[in-house]
Amino acid sequence: MSGATNNGIISPSQLPNNNNNESAASATSTPAPEVNSDDQKQNLKQVINSIDKTLGLLHQLYLTVSSFDVSFQLPLLQRINGLVMELDNMKKLSADCNIQVPMEVLNLIDEGKNPDEFTRDVLNSCIAKNQITKGKTDAFKSLRKHLLEELEQAFPDEVEAYRDIRASSAAEMRQMAQAQGMLPNGDVKIKNEP
Questions:
Q1: Which positions ≥6 away from 41 have C-beta within 8 Å?
Q2: Which among 31, 35, 94, 101 could disulfide-bond with 39, CB atoms 3.0 to 4.6 Å apart, if both were Cys?
Q3: Helix count (H) and strand count (E) of the chain?
Q4: Are 108 and 118 in contact (CB under 8 A)?
Q5: pTM
Q6: Is 157 left (phi over 0), alpha (psi -120 to 50) or beta?
Q7: Does the entry feature the keyword Lyase, yes or no (predicted)?
Q8: SS3 174
Q9: How far is CA 29 from CA 4, 18, 24, in A?
Q10: Angle at 58 between CA 57 and CA 62, to 5 degrees
Q11: What's the DSSP call for residue 188?
């Protein structure tokens, strides 16, 4: 798909648009102001309700078409018009939603699979990478400890000086972190505004 970004995530604004005038106007207009979280949730609920209504209309249309008779022509046209109006409404509502969906999720849906598989696979991949990284970290800690023990036997005075330097450097870093509002792990404290 040409609207996909490098990370494989697309947003509704990247989907193909049938109205070229509208896309040209939106490309030249200024970006929309930031929408707060409650408005985004409300917009999302409206889109979800519109999707549910569209699915209901599609089901009604299916029932009408599957048992079509000439006498059902008017109800069929009414249901088609209702579906078109609801799809138009959904498109308008979705313009206010900024939801990014990974392409992998869309591919899973196209393949008829459960999109939760993507979430499970991502979590399992993160856990596996975390375990590999933890193993490497533990290996380096063990190597450092072993090297310090070997160096202490061969050069006890230099190792003692090294440990003093490390201790004073760590104390300075802690003081700087406290002065800057940083946490011991390097994160910055966020002050709550009154």
A1: none
A2: 35
A3: 6, 2
A4: yes
A5: 0.43
A6: alpha
A7: no
A8: helix
A9: 22, 18, 9
A10: 115
A11: B
